[in-house]
Design goal:
alpha+beta, two-stranded antiparallel ribbon, 3 helices, 2 strands, globular
Length: 76
């Protein structure tokens, strides 16, 4: 069971993230309806020491269900 206090804190943290990084939210909104089974999502993190880490996933049917539920949860 999800702790309601944790959900409220998550909502607050997401609001701060949204305010600090509006381009990230715009990007997610732009691609959210286009991510389908077979799409590739890639993440690259560049650390302050000059190194980086990169990974990707190939979206499957279960992933699209999760993305749809998340979209509903945030009212999109």
């Amino acid at each position: 069971m999800i702790n309601p206090a944790s959900l409220l804190n998550l909502k607050r943290c997401f609001g701060v993230f949204r305010d600090n990084h509006p381009k990230a939210i715009q990007f997610v909104e732009a691609v959210s309806g286009k991510v389908t089974e077979g799409s590739i999502i890639e993440v690259n993190v560049q650390f302050t020491d000059g190194t980086s880490a990169k990974t990707n996933i190939k979206v499957n049917r279960d992933d699209t269900e999760l993305f749809n539920e998340l979209r509903k949860a945030v009212g999109r």
